[in-house]
Description:
- The chain is of the alpha/beta class.
- It has five helices and seven strands; from the N terminus they run ββαβαββαβαβα.
- It has one domain (6-195): Aminopeptidase.
Amino acid sequence: MSIKIIKKENSNYEKKILVIGVFHGDEPQGEYFINSYLNNHTKNGKNAVYYIPCLNPSKCRKNSRGVDLNRNFPTKNWVLGKNNDYFGGNKPNSEIETQFLVKLINENHFDSIITIHSPYKVVNFDGPAEELANTVSKIIGYKTSNDIGYPTPGSFGTYCGVERKIPTLTIEIDENENIEILNKKFEKLFHYLENEY
Length: 197
């Protein structure tokens, strides 16, 4: 498996940010937003932004080995669950994609992390991310919440935001909203992350 990271950074950056497009293979919009932005904006801003357009190319929620990556992180609340759409693997950090992200986060001091999901139309935040969530809410036009409404053992947000105290956002887009209107919103967001945050 090959995971592509695109880094946009100056040698003297102020902040380092990670943006992940496709965590669940059946939520492909993030890859479109990231690639569209990168194809049209080449100038580096004051911040270093690491873009992963597609973490999971499986085209279904789980990865190619049948594991929900967003339940596979080595958190205190990880549990061995039923083998359904939310199956977090036979043990935490078992998947190559999860291991890749854990290593990337261990080797970098990210000031914030953003993942793009669907379909709940909310800016969900974990850890000390409420201020960033409020700013992103104004750009995207979605409400903010620190509770997605159901348990998420082994989630990326718990691993990064709650346990590691990295401001972490999960932007749940409205999959029924026009893709080009959404793309314009994410263009503004990525510009903000690179130049103003």
